[in-house]
Amino acid sequence: MTARSDTLYIQSLAKGMKVLECFADHPSPLSLNDIAEHCEMDRSAAQRMAYTLVTLGYLERGINGRGFVLGKKILERTFDYLRSVPLLERATPLIVDVQRESGERVELSLFDDLTIIFALRRQTKRQTYTTTLIGRRLATIHTASGRSIMSHLPAEEVDGILARTTATPLTSRTVTDHAQIREMIAKSAIDGYAIASEESMLGEISLASAVLDNENRPIAAIDISGSLADWSADAFAKRFAPMLMSATKALSGKAGLS
What is the SS3 assignment for 132? Predict the structure, then answer.
């Protein structure tokens, strides 16, 4: 059933959410004409949506009243979500300990079908601003975290994710060949972790292991990321894989995580 034929689907609410989502690719202030164009609606509809969202606090006017930007109320809903997921509360002290012991960036990402989304991130001093922010999505098949998760999925589900993913590679080193990705997933199932070299950021290596719920279903992954200027892939895995798998094992197998 499509959204248009679903009698429970509220088109006006969907349009309002689409206005908020258009800022994902356009972080600078947007005019009403910009919103109308990006959301494929007429200017009058864009004006009504923007006015309502400003009134509710989910949009604000830009500097000197020019254009619209996301409102601070968005952060309140982020807070509400983060405190509602038991896994994140349980994982936070572990993430802190692993980052302190490893000295590298450590993150927890949640599995969301075709993508993973970062929910906890502990950075080192050398990280860029965007790599410290939660809420970023990356394609499941293009990340060590995603492949570690996929190593715990049935073959037909892996095939479905591969078939439906249309994400653009992030770097020239991102692996896109499905046969090669399947090999990486199979290796992760044997090793207990996945590794990706320069696939999300040039010069960076990532090591990841999945977190499982009480039914052995993968729900998240923890990754440790470092610089290839400091580590070879083999040395990085040898140094941090035991630490990483110990952390995910400590979180896995418990009821009520998600």
Answer: helix
pLDDT in tens, 204-225: 999 999 999 999 999 999 999 9
Long-range contacts of 173-176 (CB under 8 A, 24+ apart): 173/197, 173/198, 173/199, 173/202, 174/142, 174/199, 174/200, 175/142, 175/199, 176/142
Which CATH number applies to 85-251: 1.25.40.10, 3.40.50.300, 3.30.450.40, 3.50.50.60? 3.30.450.40
Of the candidates 109, 112, 192, which has an alpha carbon nearest to the alpha carbon of residue 148?
192
Quick: pLDDT tens for 39-89: 999 999 999 999 999 999 999 999 888 899 999 999 999 999 999 999 999
Nearest Cα neighbor of 200 from 100, 91, 102, 127 is 127
> What are the sequence ranges of the domains in the chain?
10-74, 85-251
CA-to-CA distance for 110 and 130, rounded, in angstroms? 18
Distance (Å) of CA 37 to CA 22, 27, 40? 10, 15, 5
Residue with tokens 């692993």: 98
Q: Which CATH class is domain 10-74?
A: mainly alpha
Task: Give the integer Cα–Cα distance in Å for 58 and 71.
Answer: 4
